């Protein structure tokens, strides 16, 4: 039996919740994230996105692009509570739900014919229930595998509902930019452009051996498979947690070893508490630090590229599950 996978993605989740909670925000550009000069955008409403604001953008850039925006620190406890409501709805549509983040998940609805006459009708009911019970909007992609389902959910946002059938997949995705393939970031996109590959259709036609010389054999094969809409991974509802961590952004640079040690111990204490709460042990400890001199040297380039790395000194301790 061919699988049927839904990818459900809440539209502008944090900003949409703020607009729900504050009627005066509705229809206006809402930007959620760190409000300091070193903060980054967590989520922007679609009204703000029309001004060129997007997630992971430095907040200073967002303020320049959208001076009339409503800037909100964010109520993450509320966002988690709403997420729990949404995932409870998911569980009524499939026993196989794989969370990807606080606001998106894969659902395997294979064989759910008794719930609805078609996957599209099932997805419509799911979207309607989410809207009715949370006053929020979700976009849904329907496809025979995870890659195509996730791609489909993003094609007609916001409030999208797109189905990509197996027999139509190669034709439907061919015109899309090659960056839509999983694993294609800035560097890979540059390498592919040098080979004359800018669309998924051009990837379909590319010689895999030539690709392997530029990208490596494994990456070349994986991208070729995805370009034809092939993805054999199953929805994994019980996927194990791989890491537990804590990251903090400092309003001012840490000037002494004593300050750094104090903050590091505080981070370690919080990570330790999360490990104990999860009932797991750590095998590897990882520390991430952004130094002030590197920050000054590269801040202009980073801002221009809209990197996902915060433009601040920060520290993360990420013990892996043992």
Structural write-up:
This protein has 322 residues and is an alpha+beta fold. It has 13 helices and 11 strands. It has helices spanning 13-21, 46-49, 59-65, 76-91, 119-134, 146-153, 169-173, 186-194, 200-205, 208-215, 217-227, 257-278, 292-305; strands spanning 5-10, 30-33, 41-44, 70-72, 97-101, 104-108, 138-143, 161-163, 246-249, 287-289, 314-317. It has a 5-stranded mixed sheet with strand order 5-6-1-7-8. A 3-stranded mixed sheet has the order 3-2-4. A hairpin with a 7-residue loop joins β2 and β3. α4 (76-91) packs antiparallel against α5 (119-134) and α10 (208-215) packs across α11 (217-227). The chain is globular.
Helix percent reads: 40-55%
β-strand amount: 5-15%
Order of helices and strands: EHEEHHEHEEHEHEHHHHHEHEHE
Rg, nearest Å: 22 Å
Contiguous low-pLDDT stretches (5 residues minimum) are 294-322
Could you give the count of β-strands? Answer: 11
Mean pLDDT, to the nearest integer, reads 86
- Straight-line N-to-C gap: 37 Å
Counting DSSP H or I runs of 4 or more residues, the number of helices is 13
């Amino acid at each position: 039996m061919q699988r049927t996978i839904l990818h459900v993605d809440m539209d502008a989740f944090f900003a949409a919740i703020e607009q729900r909670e504050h009627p005066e925000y509705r229809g206006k550009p809402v930007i959620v994230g760190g409000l300091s000069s070193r903060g980054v955008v967590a989520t922007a409403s679609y009204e703000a996105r029309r001004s060129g604001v997007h997630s992971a953008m430095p907040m200073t850039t967002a303020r320049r692009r959208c001076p009339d925006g409503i800037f909100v620190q964010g109520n993450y406890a509320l966002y988690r509570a709403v997420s729990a409501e949404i995932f409870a709805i998911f569980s009524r549509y499939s026993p196989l739900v794989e969370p990807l983040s606080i606001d998106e998940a894969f659902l395997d609805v294979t064989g759910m014919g008794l719930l609805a006459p078609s996957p599209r009708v099932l997805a419509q009911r799911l979207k309607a229930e989410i809207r009715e019970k949370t006053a929020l909007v979700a976009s849904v992609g329907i496809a025979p595998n995870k890659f195509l389902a996730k791609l489909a959910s993003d094609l007609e946002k916001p409030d999208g509902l797109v189905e990509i059938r197996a027999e139509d997949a190669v034709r439907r995705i061919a015109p899309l930019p090659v960056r839509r393939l999983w694993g294609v970031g800035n560097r890979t996109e540059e390498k592919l452009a040098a080979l004359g590959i800018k669309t998924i259709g051009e990837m379909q036609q590319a010689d895999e051996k030539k690709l392997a010389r530029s990208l490596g054999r494994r990456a070349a094969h994986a991208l070729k498979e995805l370009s034809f809409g092939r993805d054999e991974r199953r929805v994994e509802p019980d996927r194990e947690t791989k890491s537990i961590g804590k990251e903090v952004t400092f309003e001012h640079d840490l000037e002494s070893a004593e300050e750094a040690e104090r903050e590091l111990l505080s981070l370690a204490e919080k990570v330790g508490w999360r490990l104990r709460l999860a009932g797991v042990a750590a095998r590897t400890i990882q520390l991430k630090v952004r130094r002030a001199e590197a920050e000054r040297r590269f801040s202009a380039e980073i801002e221009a590229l809209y990197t996902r790395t915060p433009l601040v000194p920060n520290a993360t301790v990420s013990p892996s599950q043992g």
